[in-house]
Design goal:
By secondary structure, this protein is mainly α. Helices cover 56% and strands 6% of the residues.
């Protein structure tokens, strides 16, 4: 993990970014097909949270409270059952397929909410921008005289609510997420419209990524694409009913 103090600061920045900009992360994965997928079929729900696992959560919880802590990724031995292949170690943490942003294998985050057919350019743009903002904010505080540990603890304490290690499919999770104040945007249209919010326009302009005009143009073209796909699917359904289902029923 390199320097533990740097690791904690990096994680604090990421947690802050996910909590503050869950609406943008949801907008980045908005599509008609993904709207049906999220919350089922081994896909995470539309509620944006991050799963850290027991070991990493315990480490950060102790760290944010000012206690001495050390993170050691848990491992287990996998027996292959094959004489020609020796047993080997694998991460022991649950991968939690019900989380949009789980920390897995003791070394990385996965953004699981992205649809399989989606272009990831906007996804990567959003991830890079929100993390850059968080890194800049923490760096500015440290350069202003605050020590790194205090800055990281402050960020973790302010944004701890976005960490959820439970079952994202649980019936009680939406109500709990609402109490926590997390972003839950089931509709891809509503999520896409968040691209034009004052908060997000200010973010992209401040980071020099997109102007207001560029961001609104992306929002509008995404909405047009969304509507076009739904129209195509709807017309296809009607055509199938007319050509195949209705004639079969008449014949029967």
């Amino acid at each position: 993990l390199g320097r533990p103090e740097v690791f904690a600061v990096m994680l604090a920045a990421f947690v802050q970014a996910v909590d503050r900009h869950g609406d943008l992360l949801r907008a980045a994965v908005a599509s008609p097909g993904n709207d049906f997928r999220l919350g089922a079929m081994e896909a995470p729900p539309a509620i944006i949270s991050t799963y850290l696992g027991e070991a990493l959560t315990s480490f950060l919880d102790a760290y944010r409270k000012g206690e001495k802590a050390e993170y050691t990724p848990q491992k287990t031995v996998l027996e292959t059952g094959c004489d020609s292949i020796d047993a080997f170690e694998i991460p022991a943490e649950d991968r939690n397929r019900t989380s949009p942003l789980p920390y897995t294998a003791g070394m990385r985050f996965e953004f699981r909410a992205v649809g399989s057919a989606q272009n990831v350019s906007l996804v990567n743009t959003v991830l890079a921008t929100i993390c850059a903002e968080a890194f800049k904010e923490l760096a500015d505080k440290m350069e202003g005289g605050s020590d790194a540990a205090s800055v990281a603890r402050e960020a973790l304490n302010q944004h701890w609510r976005v960490i959820f290690n439970g079952n994202g499919y649980a019936a009680e999770w939406p109500a709990e997420a609402e109490q926590r104040g997390l972003f839950n945007i089931p509709s891809g249209v509503d999520a896409t419209n968040m691209l034009g919010s004052d908060k997000n326009v200010a973010l992209f302009e401040a980071m020099g990524v997109m102007s207001k005009e560029e961001l609104l143009a992306r929002r509008d073209t995404t909405l047009e694409h969304y509507a076009g796909l739904v129209e195509i699917e709807g017309k296809c359904m009607v055509d199938m009913a007319k050509r195949q289902i209705v004639p079969a029923l008449v014949k029967a």
